[in-house]
């Protein structure tokens, strides 16, 4: 493993933030993987910067005004709507 200081407590903290339950074996595996990832970032920091092309070209199509759906047409296939708007599920 590298000299990057990744501790099991760090992995458990990240897992709790992500609401993921890890057993001790998984924590140990992630400690090694996180350390490897941090090593890759250190390696990338050592790569010299190169000059990039400053001339950028817009490759997107030009904006065009076109007819769009009216409100009734847009809501026609909605599973639920309320007061002229799409209604989604409640998120708690």
Plain-language structure description:
There is one protein chain. The chain is mainly alpha-helical and 92 residues long. The chain contains three helices and two strands. The protein has helices spanning 8-17, 24-46, 71-75; strands at 81-82, 85-86. The chain has a two-stranded antiparallel sheet. The radius of gyration is 25 Å and the shape is flat.
- Largest sheet properties: 2 strands, antiparallel
Give the strand line-up of the largest sheet: 1-2
Instruction: Tally the helices.
Output: 3
Radius of gyration: 25 Å
| Order of SSEs | HHHEE
Give the CA-CA distance, first to last residue.
41 Å
Low-confidence parts lasting 5 or more residues at pLDDT below 50?
Answer: none
Classification by helices and strands: mainly alpha
Strand content: under 5%
The coarse overall form would be flat
Compute the average pLDDT: 88
